Every structure is written in C-alpha cells, then in structure tokens.
Amino acid sequence: MTNYTTVLSIAGSDGSGGAGIQADLKTFAALGCYGLSVITDVTAQNTCGVFDSLALPSSFVKEQIEVLIDDITIDAIKIGMISSAATVRTVADTLRNLPSTPVILDTVLKSSDGTGLVSEEAKNTMIEELFPLATLVTPNLGEAARLSGTGSIPTTKSDIEKTAEMLKNKGTSAVLVKGGHMTGKHCNDYLLTAKGGEWFSSPKISSINNHGTGCTLSSAIAAYSAKGFGLAEAVKKGKQFTQEALQAGASFFLGNGAGPLHHLYRCWENPSPRGIRPIE
Question: What does pTM read for this prediction?
Fold first, then answer.
C-alpha cells in the first residue's frame, strides 16, 4: 500500500470557497497531496467581502490538531488565519512536537477587501511564537510593513529586500515577500533564506478573479515541500501553479465581486471556454 503525501492546513473557513481552508484543500488535491484541516475561525463571506467572523475556542483548535497528529503522519503544514492570540499560542505549542515538519506561515492580517481579521495582540504573538517555528513566512507588501514594524509599504525592490531582512531577523528561517500589489506589469516576489536572496518574477494577469491568491500560493509551496522539494524550488513551482490557476479562472464568473482562482483546472477536461493562455 502507498502512503498519501499529507498537508495540514490550520486556517479559517471561507464559505465562498475562494480562500482559506477551502482554497487550501483544493490546492493540495490539485498537486497530488491529501489535505487535512483544522479550522481556527469561521467567516461569513462571499465574493464581495467578509461580513463577520467567529473565532473557535483555542481548546477546540488544540483538540482538532492533536487527534490528527496522534493518528496521521503530517508531511507539511500550512498556517493561515488565526485571529486570537490564545489560539496562536496553542498552535505554536503543538508545532513544537513536530520539529522536522515544514511549516509555511501565511501571515494573514486582512481579507482581500481590507477587512481586519487578526487582532494586534495576535499579530505580535504570531511574531513571537510562530516565526521561530516557521520554515517560511509569506507576507504580502502590506503585511510585511506591519510585521516588520516600519509601517511603510515597500515600493521598490531595495525596500522589499530590506523589509525581508528585518522580518528574517525576527526569528524565522526564511521570508517570501509577495510583490503582487506593486505597480508594473510583473509580479516580483523576493525569497530570503540563510543562503541569500532570490527574486521570482512572472507577468501579472488581468483578472477580477483573484480572491485567495495568497492562500493558494502558500498552500502550493506547502504541497511541494511535503513532496520533498527544496524551498526555492517549492516557491518556484508554487508560483507557477498559482499563475496557471489565475489564468484558468480568468474566464469564469462567480458572484458579484472578486471570484476565485480555478484551482482544479488541471483536473477538468475543459477548464475554460476560451482555453488557458500559455504562461509568457
């Protein structure tokens, strides 16, 4: 019998399916991994935004994690939205029992529509408790500014490199600062590890269906890490998958706001009425 390659997502739920746990599980499946989930928060949201959220008790989050790791081998972990400091501490305590498991920390602070999802205390606790346990943290530009303490969103490659260094100095092994919100025709992401820095660039895709892009990228990196790829290669492959999913989802319509990526485009016989544009 063959063992599954497993990836555990510890994150919030998005009922619209575009982000959070739902996007994570679709990404894991698309990349040949078996997805497991621990829900930290439940949200009321659709393609137009987040209308409300409810944090689950930290004790119940702990129980969810413990029953899984007692039974199933976890090959990689992706962490997303955790709104309360108590739950951040709980997750950190459990991860200390899995020191050799890759941990990809997507530092979710706000939703795509700008709704705050994480308290200031939880943000600070994330830095103190989870950064030292993370294999990689993946902030976007706004999150990088808040987490680094500068409060100033980096606007140039030099700014991003300096911000990444500041974040790495807070205790994490590696940082991927996502530059998708920068102006220009390309999305430039910067990976900083103990070996140095590396830029990853791809053409921006014009699509309103970009809800959950950050969740998808971090989940794809976790999936490739679970499959044994080194960090730089996992980032490269994760970025390519996210790019392709954005392209495949650009021709679909869902709801009245920002729709999702097409995570399962590889599994559908005809993923787009007009086909997938090749990556340039």
Answer: 0.93
